[in-house]
Amino acid sequence: MSRLFFYLPVLFVMLGLPAETFANQKFGGVLLSPNGEARGVFTLTPTPGGLLVTANLKNMPEGQHAFHLHANPSCEDSFNAAGGHYNPKGEPHGFFSGKAFHLGDMPNIHVGKSGQLKIENFIHGLILSSNMPRPGTLIIHAGGDDYISQPSGAAGARIACGVVE
Asked: pTM of the predicted model, to two decimals?
């Protein structure tokens, strides 16, 4: 029996299974405008197959907006401290790049006249574990992502930011 306890962890390492997953945890935060006004809340829920991203937005400008996970856990310096897109695998940006894409890339959102929007998006393959750094922020941009321009989709200014906690 003691051999089983020795070989079982070895088997997990050989299969590439993460040492610790965050499947029973939720992460999230509050999205703020550049002047500190609340724009909504968001939640990141790890699952065995990926990451469920939900958000409830309010007081947002009407139109199409890029919606991305960014690398750094900071909204300082007009949200520039959030850094680039969450991209732990070093992939090119954009769904139309012809290759794999940033794990932080998500489809554009479309806000109506009310300024409110509920979002549910699933990022297949983004498995949070002790072997994979957690995304730092959720960012909403002034314009839509064109899904191909490098390095970030020509989406314009950052108009809302929330630190993942």
From this structure: 0.82
